[in-house]
Automatic annotation (TrEMBL):
It comes from the Bacteria. SUPFAM superfamilies: DHH phosphoesterases. Residues 40-182 form the DDH domain. It comes from Nonomuraea jiangxiensis. This is Phosphoesterase RecJ domain-containing protein. Residues 260-338 form the DHHA1 domain. One of its GO terms (molecular function) is nucleic acid binding.
């Protein structure tokens, strides 16, 4: 049965930690701003993951049911929904960044910690009259005109769920599928320490709509083109372990040999980071323009979010990233230098 969100029993408790940090006055203002807008432009971070795209589409469904004109987009130079996320409902809401309103009245951003994460849509958002920022990154820079930011939330999807309810929306299977994709992505399938009781309670509300958790898991993690295995093999062939750091890289030439899109590389870090001997894992992924996206993971002792912030990116304590315009050798040299500083600081603090 579809939970009716107007029914108090189905609403998360006011004390739920997932939104403690956001004052009521901010939620009220968000609801008022959205209520007063005829058109709402939604944006999530570039090369969206399940949390960014899922949160955006879930809110998009509700806005559409409220009779709003909406556009939803993300600012990649080559606009394409990552294959892993094409199963998400609501793709018809998406437009390429060129079709995003140049001077929007109201923009809502999802899972973006800085304006830079909006890529090509950064300037559109800068020109908007109002920008509501829905995010859970501790590194969030408080951009926009209204922040719905809670770094204790395991996923932006938790805040998006709140927004759905507060707009008077109800969970249906489509909205729940989008939110669930965000929740499972950002909690590593309920494995990361961010997996609080509130996360499982939210999952229960979503699953109660009848969504297929098995199909979602398969779409997200259990399928890939054959070329992925070959590219993964190259990455693992050159993997290195040095002083608690395990790292490797994937070039665009590796991918070109199998026509493998950049977005297919997302899961490689999850294989590399399992290394027992390493506390930090890094995968450098060359995009189609020759820039390197650096994915980093920590088992907890080191704050890779700090390391990546210093290097121009951001993220969380245990998962963070940044873009490097240097080559592999130089990128890793800089990363090691900053990692050493953060390690020294954290061992000094003990
Ligand atoms: P991933 O390695 O999966 O691409 O990213 C891990 C985490 O780091 C995500 O939470 C993501 O939002 C953040 N992140 C990755 N790349 C960047 C970046 O270039 N800038 C910022 N600010 N955060 C990033
Ligand atoms: Mn997220």
């Amino acid at each position: 049965m579809t939970p009716n969100v107007r029914d108090r029993a189905d609403r998360p408790s006011r004390a739920a930690p997932c939104h403690d940090a956001i004052p009521e006055i901010s939620w009220d203002r968000a609801v008022r701003l959205i209520g007063g807008a005829e058109e709402v432009a939604l944006a999530c971070h570039v090369t969206p993951d399940g949390d960014a795209l899922g949160s955006m589409l879930a809110v998009g469904f509700v806005l559409r049911s409220m009779g709003k004109r909406i556009v939803a987009s993300f600012g990649d130079r080559h606009f394409a929904v990552p294959r892993l996320l094409r199963f998400l409902p609501g793709q018809d809401m998406l437009v390429p960044p060129e079709e995003f309103p140049p001077v929007p009245g109201l923009v809502i951003t999802f899972d973006a910690s800085t304006p830079e994460r909006l890529g090509l849509l950064r300037d559109n958002a800068a020109r908007a009259r109002e920008v509501i920022v829905v995010d859970h990154h501790p590194s969030n820079e408080s951009f926009g005109t209204l922040g719905l930011v809670d770094s204790t939330a395991a996923a932006t999807a938790m805040l998006a769920e709140q927004l759905v309810y507060r707009l008077g929306g109800r969970l249906d299977r489509d909205i729940a599928t989008c939110l669930y994709a965000g929740l499972v992505t950002d909690t590593g399938s309920f494995r990361y320490p961010s997996t609080t009781p509130a996360v499982h309670q939210m999952a229960a509300r979503l699953v109660a709509t009848g969504l297929r958790t098995d199909e979602i898991a398969r779409e997200l993690w259990d399928r890939s083109p054959f070329g992925y295995l070959k590219v993964l093999a190259s990455a693992l062939e050159r993997v290195r372990l040095e002083d608690g750091l395990v790292w490797t890289y994937v070039t665009r030439v590796d991918r070109a040999a199998y026509g493998l899109p950049y977005a297919e590389l997302e899961g490689i870090i999850d294989i590399v980071r399992r290394t027992d001997e390493a506390e930090v894992a890094v995968v450098l992924k060359e995009d189609d323009h020759g820039d390197w996206q650096v994915s980093t993971r920590s088992k907890g002792a080191v704050d890779v979010g700090t390391v990546c912030s210093v290097l121009g990116g951001g993220g969380h304590h245990n998962a963070a990233g940044y873009t490097s315009h240097d080559g592999v050798v130089e990128t890793m040299a800089r990363f090691r230098r900053e990692l050493a500083k953060v390690r020294r600081r954290s061992s000094g603090a003990v």
